[in-house]
UniProtKB/TrEMBL annotation:
PROSITE patterns: ABC_TRANSPORTER_1, ABC_TRANSPORTER_2
SUPFAM superfamilies xrefs: P-loop containing nucleoside triphosphate hydrolases
UniProt KW Cytoplasm keyword: no
Keyword set, alphabetical order: ATP-binding, Nucleotide-binding, Transport
Transmembrane segments: none
Classification via InterPro entries: AAA+_ATPase, ABC_transporter-like_ATP-bd, ABC_transporter-like_CS, P-loop_NTPase
Descriptive protein name: ABC transporter ATP-binding protein
Length: 214
């Protein structure tokens, strides 16, 4: 899905050759400041590498329009954004920004279910709690229906049980629909339970170029 070769970025990241597999669940782990978010931002073309090349499938990042790239790989940052309006407005706005047609009620309900946010869609989104807003941002990304989801600590604001429900539903959806998930997590439990491939970052370097989980 993604390949990074000879990549250096921001004086922190140094990646010789890393392949992030398609249609699998990849967890990026490692201590604070080890370069996890920097790596995820490169995968979303939010940053460009100072050196080296990044591919999304057959496409080279330096040769592909970032907007087009981001239709294939949608990122949910750690500090999520909530827009003015209802939950429904917040779910549709990503599609609207991308110039795509609105999603059906059924699609919105499925996205809310996957994110474990069973709320009235007409409710004002700004009244949601921090953890609910985090799940709303995840549901908005699901509604976009990209090939790959890039999630920066998607369960950081959730209690353990809710985090587990979200991960169970999300990973089932990813596997059943042949999608790719790349997510940063500080939870060893989540990485051990859900990942097919783990990238452990240390001082900006992916240890052993990632490893398959048995
Ligand atoms: N825009 C930037 N310019 C320069 N240095 C940056 C920039 N953004 C991040 N860094 C530095 O790069 C290093 C890696 O940051 P990054 O956010 O990728 O770490 P992380 O592993 O995601 O950390 P955390 O788990 O705390 O979120 C840090 O030392 C950080 O200070």
């Amino acid at each position: 899905m993604f390949r990074l070769k000879g990549v250096k970025a921001r004086g922190v990241l140094s990646i010789t050759d890393l392949t992030i597999p398609a249609k699998r669940i990849t967890c990026i782990v490692g201590e604070s400041g080890s370069g996890k978010t920097t790596l995820l931002r490169l995968l979303n073309q939010l940053d460009s590498p100072d050196e080296g090349e990044i591919w999304l499938g057959q496409h080279l990042s330096s040769e592909m329009d970032p907007t087009q790239w981001r239709r294939g790989a949608v990122m949910v940052p750690q500090a999520t954004i909530t827009f003015k309006g209802t939950i429904r407005d917040n779910l549709q706005i990503g599609l609207s920004f991308a110039g795509k047609p609105e999603a059906s009620n059924e699609q919105l309900e499925e996205a809310l279910h996957l994110a474990s946010l069973e709320k009235d869609m007409e409710q004002n989104a700004e009244d949601l709690s921090g953890g609910e807003k985090q799940r709303l941002a995840l549901a908005r990304a699901i509604v976009m229906n990209p090939m790959a989801l890039l999630l920066d600590e998607p369960t950081s604001a959730l209690d353990e049980d809710t985090a587990d429900t979200v991960m169970q539903r999300l990973t089932t959806f990813i596997r059943e629909n042949g999608k790719t998930l790349v997510m940063i997590t500080h939870s060893r439990y989540i990485a051990d339970t859900y990942a097919d491939f783990v990238i452990e970052m240390k001082n900006g370097v992916p240890q052993g170029n990632g490893r398959d989980v048995e």
